[in-house]
Amino acid sequence: MSNILNKIDSPKDLKELSIEELSVLASEIREALLKKVNVIGGHVGPNLGMVEATIALHYVFNSPIDKMVYDVSHQSYVHKILTGRKEAFTNPEKYHTVSGYTNPDESEHDYFKVGHTSTSISLATGLAKARDLKGDKENIIAIIGDGALSGGQAYEGLNNASVLNSNIIILVNDNEMSIAENHGGVYENFALLRETKGKAEKNFFKTIGFDYYYSEEGHNIEQLIEVFEKVKDIDHPVVVHMHTIKGKGLEVAEKNKEQWHSAFPGALNIKPDQKIQMPESYPSITKDFIVDKYEKGENVIAITAATPVFTGFTPDLRVQAGIHYTDVGIAEEHAVAFASGLARNGAKPILSIASSFVQRTYDQLSHDLSLNNNAATILVYAAGISAMDSTHLGTFDIPLISNIPNMVYLAPTCKEEYLAMLNWAVDQNSHPVAIRIPDWNLISTGIEDTTDYSILNKYKVMEKGSEVAIIGLGGFFKLGKKVKTMLKDKLGIDATLINPHFITGLDEDLLKSLESNHKLVITLEDGILDGGFGEKIARFYGASDVKVLNFGSKKEFTDSVPLNELYEKYHLTDELIVADIEKCLK
Amino acid sequence: MSNILNKIDSPKDLKELSIEELSVLASEIREALLKKVNVIGGHVGPNLGMVEATIALHYVFNSPIDKMVYDVSHQSYVHKILTGRKEAFTNPEKYHTVSGYTNPDESEHDYFKVGHTSTSISLATGLAKARDLKGDKENIIAIIGDGALSGGQAYEGLNNASVLNSNIIILVNDNEMSIAENHGGVYENFALLRETKGKAEKNFFKTIGFDYYYSEEGHNIEQLIEVFEKVKDIDHPVVVHMHTIKGKGLEVAEKNKEQWHSAFPGALNIKPDQKIQMPESYPSITKDFIVDKYEKGENVIAITAATPVFTGFTPDLRVQAGIHYTDVGIAEEHAVAFASGLARNGAKPILSIASSFVQRTYDQLSHDLSLNNNAATILVYAAGISAMDSTHLGTFDIPLISNIPNMVYLAPTCKEEYLAMLNWAVDQNSHPVAIRIPDWNLISTGIEDTTDYSILNKYKVMEKGSEVAIIGLGGFFKLGKKVKTMLKDKLGIDATLINPHFITGLDEDLLKSLESNHKLVITLEDGILDGGFGEKIARFYGASDVKVLNFGSKKEFTDSVPLNELYEKYHLTDELIVADIEKCLK
Questions:
Q1: All domains of chain A in start order, with CATH
Q2: Residues A449-495: pLDDT tens digits?
Q3: What is the ipTM of this complex?
Q4: Do A127 and B341 touch (CB under 8 A)?
Q5: Which of A155, A343, A391 sits opposite B152 (nearest CB)?
Q6: If residue B218 lies in a helix (H) or strand (E), which one and from where to where?
Q7: What does the similarity note say (chains A, B) (predicted)?
Q8: CB atoms within 10 A of CB B196
Q9: Is the whole model's pTM more than 0.95, yes or no?
Q10: Fewer CB within 10 Å: N-end or C-end of chain B?
């Protein structure tokens, strides 16, 4: 282990170091970060940009009495190193002992589990108000950057923090980036503030009522300590606007900030000129679809809220697409309402968004879009049970989206169905349509899908059988096929296999017809059971003699649990499902 | 009918009038508004403040080619009068032919159904972008005010509208108010801009990148026409900041803006010094509970997002409460995250919010609050099936809230249960707790509730019977009692009656035990069935011989449909339910 980092077991160990030693420490930390990220992957760019600032924060403030709230918290690796968790970054055997986000279960220096953007200011305002209620005096610090200031919740937080009348420090880490480049008018003001070293009269933070400090050199520990000392124990709300370089210290990352926001294992071993051939994927075929449409003169427009990876548009293609591509920045609520407005005036918006972030837009999906029945298309990515961190689960979108009136939520099982659904969604003018992308891996059957999706809630019987009917939704249709095979092999049952296509409604005629020669209907869905698809089937058969078994995940926040463990636990393997069926039929 | 108004059948009729005639028209409109509102109630303050501005807008712009989007749209009465719907305001027999909000089904001059705040800028940005895609040239105007600029979605919209690079006009109706007074730092900037007649260097809108015009006299039609003419056909984003008086022209409303935001029928007949005795209500007993707690030295804090009516705190009491009462302004997302932060640092936050607005906070309820398991209390008001406008329905909160892990959602049936639940929620430190206020009318049984709510998901058997079990949730428990009575009378069945208390989980032991001597379990919930409480019961019994019937509302946006019609339609009367039970038992 390295020299100085070796001695740091808690923030107080920092306070005895000289500025020079702190600089050496920064180098050692950077080295450890790169080594670890190259083994297990992670948010390399954001953390390289926060090395000096985190050292200076812990040098000046007294965590955990003084409370730091990291926004998104994917930039908290250095904070973890300095607060007793360095081994998780220096000892490869312990790499997996900490998560990629702050977590109160890991350390008293972490106040919240956080993985969504723009929340830190509201959370910190709550901590500060509670401090005032109790008559305490500690510093409360929100650390926000990486584009999170375009999120509405951050603004609501700023607007309330600024009238708190007591200590709250908002450290704005201005690295000129979201995941991709920043979008939105306020970032032009930040550029002006950087150009004028914080002296411009036109100052967003001041108009909202904040005292304001600017720090140009976000990688100069001495200067950072100076400005943090100035605001420590301040008796009113203050913004410290700090200019940093995303990816600082790693040349490729400084040059290509978007690509190095997050790195996959081994990314550092890739040669700079090495072209990585990306396989065909749902984003890539969607991009092709959109390009084809606008080249034919259609008013399609691809929309992302700062996660362009889901759109399939690379930086070059975005420029080519011109008005047919829009990144609204981290502003998911706006993205959905904007799409509704576009559809209302005759355009064809296609918004790509992750399941865990579509959560931010329930009211926009309901009130702005579905109540108005505007024909926008929403593509929901990263949906389904996964080994993800508890802040990035994709298991909740079915209850969230499918219980909204007017909305049509579709579940394709393969490339061909997806393209047919997408084409229908974009061409029609009657419904808001969401499509749940089934998987990262594209399954292609090679068989064209000629389904007419304008006939809503029509399920497709893929194989006709009796006794047991298997309804396999979207990504879990393939599990349904396996169950059918095993049912035949083990119990000699020739089950009916159904691909429902629609999450948002029941094919009542088909379900009714099953009653004549089926004892049991099972549903398989890649998400939580509570409020989901299967429960609607259970309700439908509630008064009949047909029995129903619903398979899906439990209502819980899982945290980086391996997928096979989750499948075991939830009975989502063909063996466990067939055993449950056998028990039920006895 | 009055003289000039009589001649106005569409906006183009305005364009032939002199300024003097337009002023007379304003008086006639004001008169009609007051007369109508005094008969059927409505948003009197916001509309009185928009009379001149709406006349000037329609004088200058060419609706519906030029497109106006009213934020919240409760201030669109004058717009309706001028766009072919005046009879709904002048002819008492036609008062109910228009809704209180914009509605594309009513008129081509209305672009969206809108009843939630802060959405207009995003929606208008979508209209504008579609216009640009099509190569059209019309004006797009968002009309926002009444405190809606503190909402995060408005900020996300501003931030994107300002970089649109083409025509979009944001008319900010600054009446110095939300429903209550404004809260948040940005409003101090608006005050500065008013004081300086828009000339202050510190200008929120300019920092976000807007061109900016200020209009001091929001009730001077000539001046308004002048400024609107200046921005008409402008080729870039612009904010017109207009100063108006909420309630203009009605003395009591100008003096007491919060009370006259919305008026009940006959409100104008109340004498100014007449004291209205408010009956005991859920807000009033909650307020008493909170005052009692903080007087005993507990760190409770009442939170509202600009709807203080749900807190029970009158303006006087808010001042008395000091730090124990916070209005965060229209900023629901912040309110929930703020509550999470408060709870994390040892305070006892109690947030009161309407069902239709809690929708805006799904991600905060999930990610910021429940994932962190912080013990905040959320009181959900105005929940349940109702004759409300489609934008203000209270039927969706059960699927929204109850499918979030860790969250405890409680359903009291009376005052005593509510107080016991509230007391438990505030005292404990283990769970975020939401409580669904069952009704506006307080039911008191007079029997103290001694239930230990820390034993989660324990249902209460109120009357033991057999054959049929009735699970009556929250406000529908009273319907359950009626059904039990009628079952006895009509079918001679002695049904079991259950008060589940908990929406978020199943009492599996109890449900299991029912299997021995019950053929049918029915569930009654005051909200949509899809994703709701009853479906979980149906799933539980899916593989058993017990049949299940779920009663609740359909998945649809109803629009001001009388409650008894909805109850008929959804089979939510004792007669219809008993008939369904009879059919099922046959």
A1: 5-247 (3.40.50.970), 282-436 (3.40.50.970), 460-585 (3.40.50.920)
A2: 999 999 999 999 999 999 999 999 999 999 999 999 999 999 999 99
A3: 0.97
A4: yes
A5: A155
A6: none
A7: Belongs to the transketolase family. DXPS subfamily.
A8: 13
A9: yes
A10: C
